[in-house]
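Troubleshooting log. The previous run stalled partway through. Resubmitting the same three chains, unchanged.
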Amino acid sequence: MDFRYPTSVINAHFSLIKPFKPMNQEIFTINNLWVLVATILVFIMHLGFASLEAGLTRAKNTVNILFKNTIIPAIGLLTYAFIGFNLMYPGDAFIGGFFGLSGLGLSLPEGWDTPAYDEGFTFYTDFIFQAMFAATAATIVSGAVAERIKLGPFIFFSILYVGICYPIVGMWKWGGGFLDSLDTPFYDFAGSTIVHSVGGWGALVGAFLLGPRLGKYTEKGMKPIPGHSIPMATIGVFLLWFGWFGFNGGSVLSADPGDVSRVFVTTAIAGAAGAFGALFASYFKFKTYDITMVLNGILAGLVGITAGADLMGVGESAIIGFVGGIIVVFGVVLFDKIKIDDPVGAISVHLLGGIWGTLAVGLFGDLAGMSQVLSQLLGIAVVAAFCFATSWLIFFSLKRSIGIRVDEREELEGLDINEHSMQAYPDFASKD
Amino acid sequence: MDFRYPTSVINAHFSLIKPFKPMNQEIFTINNLWVLVATILVFIMHLGFASLEAGLTRAKNTVNILFKNTIIPAIGLLTYAFIGFNLMYPGDAFIGGFFGLSGLGLSLPEGWDTPAYDEGFTFYTDFIFQAMFAATAATIVSGAVAERIKLGPFIFFSILYVGICYPIVGMWKWGGGFLDSLDTPFYDFAGSTIVHSVGGWGALVGAFLLGPRLGKYTEKGMKPIPGHSIPMATIGVFLLWFGWFGFNGGSVLSADPGDVSRVFVTTAIAGAAGAFGALFASYFKFKTYDITMVLNGILAGLVGITAGADLMGVGESAIIGFVGGIIVVFGVVLFDKIKIDDPVGAISVHLLGGIWGTLAVGLFGDLAGMSQVLSQLLGIAVVAAFCFATSWLIFFSLKRSIGIRVDEREELEGLDINEHSMQAYPDFASKD
Amino acid sequence: MDFRYPTSVINAHFSLIKPFKPMNQEIFTINNLWVLVATILVFIMHLGFASLEAGLTRAKNTVNILFKNTIIPAIGLLTYAFIGFNLMYPGDAFIGGFFGLSGLGLSLPEGWDTPAYDEGFTFYTDFIFQAMFAATAATIVSGAVAERIKLGPFIFFSILYVGICYPIVGMWKWGGGFLDSLDTPFYDFAGSTIVHSVGGWGALVGAFLLGPRLGKYTEKGMKPIPGHSIPMATIGVFLLWFGWFGFNGGSVLSADPGDVSRVFVTTAIAGAAGAFGALFASYFKFKTYDITMVLNGILAGLVGITAGADLMGVGESAIIGFVGGIIVVFGVVLFDKIKIDDPVGAISVHLLGGIWGTLAVGLFGDLAGMSQVLSQLLGIAVVAAFCFATSWLIFFSLKRSIGIRVDEREELEGLDINEHSMQAYPDFASKD
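Second attempt completed without errors. Output:
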């Protein structure tokens, strides 16, 4: 039996939308081409994350954040080739729907480049599309722990989190695991939970265990630490939105005209509505037009639509996005209140946005209903428990052994000089 | 009868090039995929505009210009879903070829995801491709009015201009309106007039009603106000050129190999020739190698080829682009002479370039001829009249009511601090 | 006989992989679409080069480097249309496999938009894809000669090198010339030698004839001159990697699912492994985490895989990329030792990486073997001889006539003020 795209999903998919046309080489070639194009759209999201996180942090830590965001996709690609893909799609090598491993490294199955492997793509396409996804989980973390984490421990965390934790969770749903075998299967089209919340939980644990940046929460209250380049943050969000058309659109796993175009529309509308949700909420809250909130609102709208991008209509997408944009503003305020310092708002965007989007599948669209709500809650809960536990385990072990936080002098001077012996902008005078 | 892509266009198209192959699911899927990919190429043009306009203005207004360019695509997507698409493609709901409205919001027609809807794309693809176009009109305006317009009124203008004015004009041609029903139909392949001049007229009216920036035109003559980041401007132009392959290439409305590849070549060559036109003209005029002129020359070349990208050969594209590049240099000089202050050169690029490109359809390529010239002039004139009048009406009403210009102190300090309570680059020391 | 894609290559290709399916309009349309998408991915690599080179040089020379990188693609497109394409694919107009010219300008052959022209693309697609490649050769040079070359002579060099030298070398292999007619044909899938080393030799000659930047090599040893914007350098490398999927993936010259997906995987893995190769080598050498080395390591991995991207497995790609990353670190050290000043590391990346990748075709993958090694060495050697000689001839003639280096004052003040009368960042205070 082929566990890779389990019957329940395919059936759900078929009954919701419409049967595929009988397969032929032409359609196979088109499908495969689209998934490959989607792959590089997801790839460029890593530049989006890099730009966004660099823009929203200080100039003295820019090399550090760019270094992490450059090395993470490399880690993701290599670990996914070595073990992640086999953990996520273990085929028959299953232990009770919770864990499976089908080997190490990639080996080309018979007929890997024909529809016999899959009607939507070749084996290599399958691997590379999923591999590009994998790295995003760690990238989400890097924003939340920015400006104070040691480089070595962060890379160590990333290798384990991307290489092992992410694919195990992914398997629970996309690899045919227990979340996919529920009577009402948990539904997560492109990863509001499976990708974004996985990253979000790691981000929450990391930010909590590190503690806030020096000077962020003083006796006189929270002191905003503005990011050093709004242009870079803006470039980042546009590139993420751009890439999201591949992230969601490619998750159709074919070039089916109706499905892909629907996903494009829901993705575009949710992002746009997220901008307005955050605009209104932040104007209401802060009485100013805060571009960083609008940018994060777009992302929250996108994270929100990700779980049900193939299930929603235009109005529903607008609602999901708009609420996502509101959530992110109050999330940022909330985390500051409880003194969890997240320099870029990653926890609000990816964790809260991911939870909201996952729940929204039960509230809106083609699958809405109470039993779906319960399955969504179950999925959210088990992923939370696993990711919280594993990232705590990794970060806490690192904290107790080699330490995870740079020392005070290093933090004040900046990580660039201390960890990388260089500056991001050596030709320009800084303000202080 | 299907007014959406009216018979006259299709016939013109067919007779010029060649008949479509008989439709089948494979070709439909390929066509749809290309239009979707083109959609996201047009999407990323919004980042291109954002970067270009931010780069060519001062650091103290950067958050403001980025804010506008971020919110405009969101406005475009939402208003186009609510009303624009129905205004632009009203089907039978016509009043004399000038105005039509087929409802509010989007409703999926029967067979929306099959070739019965259109041989080139599904309903959702049709919507989202056109929606991405819509927002560009307002983005063009934002550059010309930069560094002095109040945020609220600009957003109000954008909503009306993108949501209502743009689709009405678009309908005249692309929705089967009166410009498309002339004996010799007005021709505008991808929108030299329908998109770029529409934006350009709004830009001209806005810049005129606002007046120049403080200190721009003094008794001692014009004082150049250099943009704060040439790298951002360069990134912007490259992204615009990149996206233009989708803007023009997607306007083929299918993946027809001959048509799309021809459009790619004419688009590339016109941009390249525009660079040289502006290089020579600006060296002749200013005796220096002015990169901002070269960048705007590329854009003028691209705007110029847009009306006839499917009609020209390589040599004709080079001429159109080269002349476009020359026009932009003298346009910038001209507008400075009459004290219309356009910080980024948007009026020269999009309005003059758009007029030139529209005329060029009568002068070069497959449709060249006197009766085509007359139709092109008629189209240019009626679009001018309508856009000038409506943008004047909107901007002037706003000016007389809530005001459109920030006060002097705010302009001198910068819009970022005053409208957004933040700075684009808080870590860096400014030159003064 | 059709020399454009010579029998030997097609045969090698067929025997290695599998026969093409019988041609039809659907597959032709898909193939053509992919090559067009790949074309614009290669296009955006020019922004990648622009960003990378600007980021790794000083702020006072930024306008200059951006100017060059903007004008080069324009030069490439226009010269390739005028003469380059006819030099590279001369058809029957051959002189002994070394030189051929089939005319000037582009003329559409009969059946140019049907599979009769080529099963993978139309004539226009063929031209535009190759034209985008052409300009990269000169772009590589511009990095190595940055911060001290005069603008005029550099543009003159670029026109000759891109317009004439590059297509002649390209013909030797891709146009069916003598390197393709060896008993064991020289193999270079997407241009480790034909593109990257061609650029690399020009870069070496240019950097040598110019001499090092003032203050780079002092009596006290080499003084690092850090680039002014690590974010721009990072953006550049990500865009290059992004575009490389089109550079290598498009070189399949069809959308064949197996071939394109394989190339995507090898390209991604080699880039990732290159990051780690350079990370380890630079940590070993400098005891710090040097992001510029990691960025160049990615590029060296990508250059390395380019010659055999369709021949390698995952493990082989990882080795090739990893070694490429190591090479670049020691290359940079080496060129500094012999006082060849390459501000961005272009010679190490493109020349050394290109040689390594070309050799690797003989060492790993489907064609590995001693006779292949010899053919690869022969190809490397003749391209070296030709490019070294021609670029020496051009640069040396320029040096002896109008001069190629700006004067001392101009170099110290920066090229932006002196050649362009402007600054890249006029609003910001510099550090000195």
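Takeaways: Confidence is low (pLDDT under 50) at residues 1-22 of chain B. Residues 25-55 of chain B form the longest helix (31 residues).
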